[in-house]
């Protein structure tokens, strides 16, 4: 006899609800495999996102038993409780349909945090490349934080975003920290002002959920703490 999972999947928009399905349980089965089985065999109208299936793109992020995860890397035998799974869209984002969220507010906050690189000078075409010393302290801080791929898991896991929708969130602030430590960047003063307001780094309660849940094993909480230090020093010097 093949074992079965009872899977409750969110259907509809924010006013929707859970629909239960019985899904065959298989060896080495991921949660994304479960969702794909439901869509292919039981509910062709189920909407969800995925792309690479190998833990590189982050587009398959959902909540599994209440925890935000990449479903392609989450094995059923690690998370199923008494043969049951609950699968929902990411939290803190508008639901488009079923397991699909609108990521626009998430990326809009990267822009509000002045996330894009701002060139500090234009070099003549025949000039050598500017050299950034890889062993420098600031470069090491930037390198440790720059591998974010924008999956939204930290944002979905952040209670402060739930309480204060205006809060910039861990990913946007982590990106700002990367740019603040790039010696080539010319937008640092404006960026520091952008992340030092009421909805910026000082709104973080340091609960560490972002660091705990980051699939890339980054430490957004430390990045936010770094922004708090820079903001404090700038305020003491009268530069904010």
From TrEMBL:
Xref: InterPro entries: 2Fe-2S_ferredoxin-like_sf, 2Fe-2S_ferredoxin-type, 2Fe2S_fd_BS, 4Fe4S_Fe-S-bd, Beta-grasp_dom_sf, Helical_ferredxn, SDH/FRD_Iron-Sulfur, Succ_DH/fum_Rdtase_Fe-S
SUPFAM superfamilies xrefs: 2Fe-2S ferredoxin-like, alpha-helical ferredoxin
Cofactor section: [4Fe-4S] cluster; [3Fe-4S] cluster; [2Fe-2S] cluster
Residue intervals of the 2Fe-2S ferredoxin-type domain: 5-93
Similarity-based family: Belongs to the succinate dehydrogenase/fumarate reductase iron-sulfur protein family.
PANTHER family listed in its UniProt record: SUCCINATE DEHYDROGENASE [UBIQUINONE] IRON-SULFUR SUBUNIT, MITOCHONDRIAL, SUCCINATE DEHYDROGENASE IRON-SULFUR PROTEIN
Identification of the protein by name: Succinate dehydrogenase iron-sulfur subunit
Record organism: Salinisphaera hydrothermalis (strain C41B8)
Species classification: Bacteria, Pseudomonadati, Pseudomonadota, Gammaproteobacteria, Salinisphaerales
């Amino acid at each position: 006899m093949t074992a079965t999972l009872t899977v409750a999947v969110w259907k509809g928009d924010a006013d929707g609800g859970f629909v239960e399905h019985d899904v065959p349980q298989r060896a080495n089965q991921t949660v994304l495999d479960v969702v794909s089985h439901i869509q292919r065999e039981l509910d062709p109208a189920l909407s969800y996102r995925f792309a690479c299936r190998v833990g590189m793109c982050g587009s398959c992020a959902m909540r599994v038993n209440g925890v935000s995860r990449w479903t392609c890397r989450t094995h059923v035998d690690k998370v199923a409780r008494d043969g049951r799974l609950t699968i929902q869209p990411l939290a803190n984002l508008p639901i488009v349909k079923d397991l699909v969220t609108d990521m626009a507010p998430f990326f809009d906050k990267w822009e509000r945090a002045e996330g894009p690189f701002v060139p500090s000078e234009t070099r003549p075409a025949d000039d050598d490349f500017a050299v950034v010393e890889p062993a420098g302290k600031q470069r090491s801080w930037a390198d440790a934080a720059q591998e974010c791929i924008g999956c939204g898991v930290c944002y979905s896991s952040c209670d402060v975003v739930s309480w204060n929708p205006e809060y910039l969130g861990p990913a946007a602030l982590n990106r700002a920290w990367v740019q603040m430590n790039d010696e080539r960047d010319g937008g640092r003063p404006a960026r520091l002002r952008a992340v030092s307001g009421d909805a910026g780094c000082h709104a973080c309660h340091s609960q560490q959920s972002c660091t705990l849940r980051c699939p890339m094993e980054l430490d957004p909480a430390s990045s936010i703490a770094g922004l708090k230090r820079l903001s404090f020093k700038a305020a003491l010097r009268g530069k904010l």
